[in-house]
Amino acid sequence: MNLFKKNPIRFEGQKEIETQIKNQTDNVISRRFKILMGVIGVVGVVLLIRLFITQISQQEYYSTKLKQYNTSLFTADTFRGNIYDRNYKRLSYNKNINCATYYAVQNITQDDIKIIANFLVKNVNVDIKSVTERDKKDYLILKCEDTKDNLINDLITSEERSTYSSDEIYQLQLSRITSQMLKDNLSDDDMKYYMIYSKIQNCTSGSVVLLEGLTVKEASLIGENSDILRGVKVTNDWSRENTYGTEFRSVLGKVTSKKEGLPASTKDILLAQDYNNDSRVGISGLEMQYENILAGTPATYSLAYDSDGNPVVETVSSGTKGDNIRLTIDWDLQSAITDEIEKQMKAHTSSIYRYANNIYLVMIDPNTGAIYAMCGYQRDEKGDIYELAGGAVQNAFEIGSAFKGGTIYAGIKHGVINQYTEFDDTSSGFKIAGTPTKFSWDTGGLGRLNAAEALSQSSNIYMFYVATLLGGGTYEYGEPLSIRDSAFDQMRLDVGELGLGVKTGIDLPSEALGYRGRVTQRQAGNFLDFAIGQYDTYTPIQMAQYVSSIANGGKRVQPHLFMESFTEDDDGTKISLLQHQVKVLDDVSSYKLAFDTIHTGFRMGCVSGLASGVNGDYEAAGKTGTAQKVYEGTSDVWANRAFIGYAPYDNPEIAVACIAEALPDAGGGTCTTLSKYAFEKYFEKYG
């Protein structure tokens, strides 16, 4: 029995080894191939599933995405709100206009542009009144490029071409094109053609208005020829209009055109508020002050392109119209008083009226600050007159004795006088050493007067005594008079509490403060002039706030033009949105004695004093004013004429402030005449 089994010994040669290695390699490749095919199969299945999801189940999603990538959005101004007077007379509104608007075409050619420009010039009225000289230079450059004319190229030397950049060469060309070159080489038809041509050429995205104010026939003609007018569509737009033309425009304000766009001064702020560069905005007056109310929400449109590259415009949202504004102005009163001022200005034509360049009148509710009328006329250097109601806020004048109510207020407030204090107004006048003697209007003297009598008779001498006491001085006839410098500042603070020399807060974008006498002129005589209204200057709206503070017993109420904003429903029912709230800026009504004294003096002035010509059944109280003015190079004396007053005197419901600049004696009654007319018109209407 064999304990060990013998296995045969195999000897492998080189061939066997190579075969073995080959078999092993084949096995590895086979396995890897199978794995690779499996992976490819899995990936293929995943791709097929993904493709199915993309093309079938998410087809709408990706189609929408594709459309969005090829669609741009843009906005357009909607109608602004209208502006009405207190009785809903429309003062500012939007006028519908038809426009030819070009929407950028993707593949437009120069020939396409030329066809459009030629068609519009030949068939539509193209207005070139707004074309500037700079525009004309650009058009001439375009024309020379288009016609291969070397006129413009010859303006630049070869050395300059090699030295300067294209932008610098362009600026050189502009600077070297003369007015005569424009006249000789650019016709009206050329300007029309290249105005349209340049607008289209520069519009590579979005849209641009080519023409405004199309007639129905012109609009129809453009629509009928849309096949050759690629990208040109008739659109509806608006322009801002004032019902009564230029009258009251300085207060209503101005709205920019689409061409003007955003004003440079506020452009960044407005862009941050989602305005566009060509958005129309209020840039002055009430249009600017209440831009946030009047401006509507812009409409949004989508701009896509068809397979031929033509624009397809669709409305995304129609936007909303701005809210309307109702003013405190009564247009019947505003218009009537303005006409009367115009008559006065037209009557002031002779040489003695050569400095009479301004007349203003403001009518205001002294209890609420509501302005019923703000009227004015101005004469320019050529002698032409024009309506300028806004001048009541911007122009300032010395108001003469109309200031004296403030002097009495300051005197009683600081305890230097009371209602019984008397001073003598005599023919001797008021004399400070080294200065001319000062008198009242009646150089013979007005006698012994108390505070109310001094107001009614307009005594300068009385006010000089009060001013001396306010300034800490002691008066002796013909002797030097010393006044504290601080008296000027204190007087300004005192009358500022009533509205003179301070911003009134009227709801307009800009308001003048008036001129203050120089610090270097703080002499005693200047302070005496201050006390009779012949030192600082004040605006008519300050005068209106001042007389209102007196009328209502010491409350400085903010004057305002805005009454409320409102909208209308489909039935035309007015829905009030935001109402003005009365704002008291200062309250010194605790000085009741001062106001009672001033009321008495003002009433006496209208009954038997210098303002008696203003009185009527409405029982007015008020004060006239005369501020002398001497113009350089002349020896004649002119005077600003003023009046401030209110009615009825015992329960004031309306106040008037009027100023007429530099009138001769012949025009002395201008303001009393206008103020009486204003009172009569008011009470005729409101009882």
- Structural class by sheet pairing and helices: alpha+beta
Count of extended strands? 20
What is the average of the pLDDT values?
Answer: 90
Q: Evaluate the radius of gyration.
A: 41 Å
For the termini, the CA-CA separation is 154 Å
Poorly predicted sequence stretches spanning 5 or more consecutive residues = none
CATH homologous superfamily placement of one domain: DD-peptidase/beta-lactamase superfamily
Helix content bin: 25-40%
CATH class of one domain: Alpha Beta
Q: Just name the CATH architecture of one domain.
A: 3-Layer(aba) Sandwich
Quote the CATH topology of one domain.
Answer: Beta-lactamase
Shape: elongated
Largest sheet report: 7 strands, mixed
Tally of individual helices:
23
Relative strand content: 15-25%
How is the topology of this model organized?
Layout lengths: L13 H44 L1 H11 L2 E5 L6 E2 L5 E14 L6 H14 L9 H15 L10 H6 L2 H11 L2 H7 L2 H15 L4 E6 L3 H9 L7 E11 L6 H4 L14 H6 L12 H5 L1 H4 L4 E7 L5 E7 L6 E4 L3 H17 L10 E7 L6 E9 L5 E3 L3 H4 L9 H10 L9 E4 L18 E5 L1 H7 L2 H11 L15 H11 L27 H8 L8 H12 L3 E3 L4 E7 L5 E6 L4 E4 L4 H16 L13 E9 L8 E10 L6 E10 L6 H17 L1
Parallel strand pairs: 2-8
Antiparallel strand pairs: 1-6, 2-3, 3-4, 3-5, 6-7, 8-15, 9-10, 9-20, 10-11, 12-13, 14-17, 15-16, 18-19, 19-20
Description of the molecule:
The model has no long low-confidence stretch (mean pLDDT 90). The radius of gyration is 41 Å and the shape is elongated. The strands form five sheets. Strands 2, 3, 4, 5, 8, 15 and 16 form a seven-stranded mixed β-sheet that branches. The termini are far apart. The longest helix has 44 residues, at 14-57. The chain is an alpha+beta fold and 687 residues long. Among the domains are: 105-202, Arc Repressor Mutant, subunit A (Orthogonal Bundle); 332-686, Beta-lactamase (3-Layer(aba) Sandwich). α3 (110-123) crosses α8 (188-202) and α16 (404-413) runs antiparallel to α22 (592-607). It has 23 helices and 20 strands.
